[in-house]
């Protein structure tokens, strides 16, 4: 990774060139007189001598190893640099920042579901947060045999057990297999607690775990969309009535789709009422004429208004609006 320029470099530092690295161990290098240690923000430096922790340095800064570091090392306080006596020690750089990692199931998980003998295959996607929690455990379990440890290593370990954890937590308390997203938070919290307990055995904490989405097979999604559409159609009349009542209660000031639907229905109702009133007026006039001894239609003339749509007839045989025969 190119963390040091050469074997006898006078500067010991970690540039974090590799993204998502939790620790890097600088080992088997000679630290000579005049060497300096640079600790950047978000880093700790641990000095190891013969596999034993000699000192942990958590404050970022630029340190002279001879004057600022060695006096604080447990068994090397009296170490004196000489012309041919370099210090052979390991420096373990720890990334103290919390890192975010995206995850996704490798294969579909077959969950037991009513009516599906082979189970319902789903996939899940989300993210988790991890950080170094215990230096001593990390050194004992990992740093002794690893040069680096990355979030990719953490992800690989988590993915290996994630399928079983998802099946276990989804199956609890009879959750609705077709609406898992509604309970994603509770499922994620349960999985987080188990993953955290497992990773802390390596000195790493899982400080957050989320499930962003569940992915169902295409056939299941189409069934859900169809059911939702049917439900929407069934509730349309009820919704329109509620929207109309709400608009009237606000003095007809409804906005958006609800107001448009209310206005359309009210307009149709008023138009129908006007037609009915005109038809009733024509019928009443005809009745009065008959009572006065006059024929209902003289000289072959039809009604003044079309009995079908209410349009004035102007003496025509057919309605100019709807084509209804008047004579």
What this model shows, in words?
This protein has 327 residues and is of the alpha+beta class. It has three domains: 13-95, no CATH class; 99-222, Tetrahydropterin Synthase, Chain A, CATH 3.30.479; 240-267, no CATH class. The protein contains seven helices and twelve strands. The protein has helices spanning 65-69, 135-143, 151-170, 184-199, 218-234, 236-249, 256-291, and strands at residues 11-12, 21-31, 36-39, 43-49, 52-57, 61-64, 87-95, 99-104, 109-113, 116-132, 148-150, 204-215. The strands form three sheets. It has a five-stranded antiparallel sheet with strand order 5-4-7-2-11. Strands 8, 9, 10 and 12 form a four-stranded antiparallel sheet that branches. It has a three-stranded mixed sheet with strand order 1-3-6. A hairpin with a 2-residue loop joins strand 4 (43-49) and strand 5. Helix 3 crosses helix 4 and helix 6 (236-249) crosses helix 7. The protein is elongated. The model is unreliable at 1-7 and 289-299 (pLDDT under 50).
């Amino acid at each position: 990774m190119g963390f040091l320029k050469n074997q006898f470099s006078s500067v010991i530092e970690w540039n974090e060139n590799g993204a998502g690295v939790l620790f890097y161990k600088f080992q088997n290098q000679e630290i000579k007189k005049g060497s300096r240690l640079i600790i950047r923000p978000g880093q700790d430096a641990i000095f190891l001598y013969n596999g034993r922790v000699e000192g942990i340095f958590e404050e970022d800064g630029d340190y002279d190893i001879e004057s600022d570091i060695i006096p604080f090392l447990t068994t090397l306080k009296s170490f004196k640099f000489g012309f041919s006596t370099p210090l052979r020690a390991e420096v373990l750089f720890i990334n103290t920042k919390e890192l975010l990692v995206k995850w996704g199931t490798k294969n579909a998980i077959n969950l037991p579901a009513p009516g599906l003998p082979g189970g319902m295959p789903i996939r899940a996607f989300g993210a988790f947060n991890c950080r170094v929690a215990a230096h001593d455990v990390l050194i004992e379990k990992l740093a002794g045999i690893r040069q680096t440890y990355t979030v990719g290593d953490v992800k690989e370990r988590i993915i290996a057990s994630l399928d079983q954890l998802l099946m276990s937590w989804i199956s609890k308390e009879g959750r609705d297999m077709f609406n898992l997203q509604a309970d994603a938070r509770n499922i994620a919290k349960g999985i987080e607690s188990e993953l955290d307990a497992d990773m802390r055995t390596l000195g790493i904490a899982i400080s957050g775990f989320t499930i962003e989405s569940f992915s169902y097979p295409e056939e299941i999604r189409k069934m859900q969309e169809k059911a939702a559409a049917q439900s929407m159609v069934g509730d349309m009349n009820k919704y329109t009535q509620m929207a109309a009542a709400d608009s009237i209660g606000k003095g007809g000031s409804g906005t958006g789709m609800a107001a448009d639907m209310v206005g359309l229905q009210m307009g149709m109702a008023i138009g129908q009422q006007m037609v009915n009133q005109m038809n009733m007026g024509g019928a009443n006039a005809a009745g009065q004429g008959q009572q006065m001894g006059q024929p209902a239609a003289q000289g072959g003339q039809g009604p003044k208004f079309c009995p079908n749509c209410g349009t004035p007839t102007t003496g025509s045989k057919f309605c100019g609006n709807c084509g209804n025969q008047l004579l």
